C-alpha cells in the first residue's frame, strides 16, 4: 500500500496535504466497491432423519410482529356460523376436530342430531365462536407471542390456517384460541372462525399451532388476519395435568418430502398418578420454518407411573417439504 511516510522529507506541506487527500479518496472508493460485491450464500443442507430434542421452540421468522397478526385492540369482523353436510364415515368428534370446535359445543349447536345415528346429507351447524356466540367481549388472553400465520388451500377448495403460538413463560398455558379472518384483495372479510390447538395446554418453551379449517369456496389468494382470543396461565401444582415427557424421538421423511414417520417414547415420573388420557402433538415445519402440518396421536392404554409407552404415527404436509418435526405432550389422570 501507498504510505505517506515514504515521501521524502523535503516535500512541502502542500504536497503532503494533497497526498493525504488522494489516499482518502482511494480508500472511500475501495469501501464502496466492497459493499457492492455480492456475497456467496451458504449451502442449505439436505434433510436427514435424526434424533430430535423434545420441546425445542420454533424460531421466529422475523424479529418484528409477523405479517397477518392483529394487535389485541384491533377489532375483527364478527364471525358467522356455517353449515356442514354430513358425509359417509363422518363422526361428530372428527368434524369437531376438523373445524376447531369442542365436541360439547358442536352437540349444543345441533340438539336435534344424534351422535349415534347421523344421516348422510344432514346439515350440521358449525359454531363460529362457541366461547362467545353472542359476540360479547372475551377476557384479555395471556400475551403469548404469535410467531406466524400461514394458510394452505385444501383439495375441496377450502383453506387450512395455522397460527403458531410460543409459550415463552415458565408456566403451562391452557385453552389458547385465536380468531382468524380471511380477507380479499380489497381488505374485505370473506370468512372468520376461531382457531384452537390440538392440545388443551401449551407447555413452557414450546410452540404449537392453533388450527382452523375454512369450508369451500375460499379464493386461493385470501390473506389471513389473526388475533389471540383466549389463553390462561395455570397455577403451579394444577393436578389436572401430569408432567409427562417425550424421549428418543425419531423422524423419517419419505422420498416425496411430504410425509414423515415419527416415533419415540412418552414417560411418566414414578411419583405421579397414572395417565388415563395421553395425547402427543407432532408439528411439521418446512426449511424456512413455516408450519406445514400437525397431527395428534392418542394412546389407547393407560400409562402407569414410572412406565414408558412407545408411539409411532404419520404427519403429513399441506405445504412444502418437511424439514423437521417437533413434539408436545398432554397427560391427564
Structure described in brief:
11% of the residues lie in helices and 36% in strands.
Helical amount: 10-25%
The main β sheet shows up as: 7 strands, antiparallel
Structural class based on helices, strands and sheet pairing:
mainly beta
CATH architecture heading of one domain = Sandwich
Principal-axes shape call: globular
The CATH topology label of one domain is Immunoglobulin-like
CATH superfamily of one domain: Immunoglobulins
Terminal-residue CA separation: 76 Å
Order of helices and strands: HEEHHEEEEEEEEEEEEEE
Rg calc: 27 Å
Report the strand count. Answer: 16
Low-confidence stretches: 1-15, 17-63, 129-138
The CATH class label of one domain is Mainly Beta
Mean pLDDT: 77
Query: How much of the polypeptide forms β-strand, as a percent range?
Result: 35-45%
Task: Supply the number of helical segments.
Answer: 3
Characterise this structure:
- The structure is a single chain.
- The chain is mainly β and 333 residues long.
- Among the domains are: 4-36; 51-55 and 239-332, Immunoglobulins (Immunoglobulin-like, Sandwich); 81-127, Roll (Membrane-bound Lytic Murein Transglycosylase D, Chain A), CATH 3.10.350.10.
- It is 11% helix and 36% strand.
- Strands 4, 5, 6, 7, 8, 9 and 10 form a 7-stranded antiparallel sheet that branches.
- The relative contact order is 0.15.
